[in-house]
Write a structure and sequence with these properties.
Number of strands: 11
Largest sheet: 9 strands, mixed
Helix content: 25-40%
Strand content: 15-25%
Structural class: alpha/beta
Length: 282
């Protein structure tokens, strides 16, 4: 199987993330998917970069599946990097190749299919997306197979989907962000996406909180930098000792968040579904 990973951020975003955790978002995706898909071949592209070669639907169709990463990209801004990213996603839809995205990956797919993304009107969702629940349509959807009635997931976002495009199905949400998981059918393609981050290790979330410390304080989620540091330290401890009950209790999470396999549920479900979602010709 041949997999294409599309980074949704800029070169500056990638450099900043490598400074924090040693990997860009695409490199994190590749590391996670190599564990889940042994024997697969992975290519990484960066469609938003200036000078990046535009991929046609025929180019994309050479791959068995496409993964679109998260990033700080604001897809409601009409900038050249955003336009290039959306044009890439439109080629993905036109190709009929199954695709999956998290965080900004979901937002890029929504914008490419005609939906709307906005800055969150009240606050960020940072560290842990709590109280995720299925919609009625999500109850029987294979993306969420194996999830309990309510679950938590890693998250860090200040933008959210405001309106899904036509031919989209809302699968899950929570009180902070009503659109947390969705299926989008557009052109010839099928996309499954989530606003949270099933691909991330808990330690990467800790690093992201430290990187966004000032923004979290400004948003009123923390009283000061020490609060953010305490939260990040607790996440780091859980990363090292995911089975320790005290680490889970202090963060108010359970195995759906702490256990690596359970945290990756949506990725595993998408990988299993790739053959049934393939709409490429021939």
């Amino acid at each position: 199987m041949t997999i294409l990973i599309a980074e949704s951020g800029t070169s500056e975003d990638r450099a900043e993330r490598r400074d924090d955790v040693g990997k860009s978002s695409g490199e994190t995706y590749a590391a996670t998917l190599r564990q889940l898909m042994p024997g697969a071949r992975f290519d990484i592209v960066r469609p938003s970069d200036e000078g990046a070669s535009a991929m046609s639907a025929q180019d994309v169709a050479a791959y068995d599946a496409i993964f679109i990463t998260g990033s700080p990209m604001h897809v409601y801004n009409d900038t050249p990097p955003v336009r290039r990213q959306i044009e890439f996603m439109q080629a993905v839809f036109a190709s009929g190749t199954p695709s999956f995205g998290s965080c900004a990956g979901l937002q890029v797919a929504v914008a490419a299919a005609g939906g709307k993304v906005r800055r969150m009107p009240e606050r960020l969702e940072a560290g842990i997306s709590r109280g995720l629940v299925r919609t009625a349509a999500g109850e029987g959807h294979p993306l969420l197979e194996g999830r309990p009635a309510v679950w938590d997931a890693p998250a860090l976002h200040g933008d959210e989907v405001e309106h899904l495009p036509e031919n989209a199905t809302l699968l899950a949400g929570n009180r902070i962000t009503p659109i947390q998981a969705a299926e989008i059918r557009h052109d010839r393609g099928i996309f499954w996406g989530v606003q949270y981050h099933p691909e991330l290790a808990i330690g990467e979330i800790a690093a992201a909180l430290r990187r966004e410390c000032d923004a979290l304080v400004d948003a009123g989620l923390a009283e000061g930098q020490s609060d953010v540091g305490d939260m990040a330290d607790r996440l780091d401890r859980l990363h090292r000792e995911p089975d320790r009950r005290s680490c889970q209790w202090l963060l108010g999470v359970d195995d759906e968040f702490a256990d690596e396999t359970k945290r990756r549920t949506e990725l595993l479900n998408f990988i299993a579904a790739i053959p049934s979602l393939d709409r490429r010709e021939g």
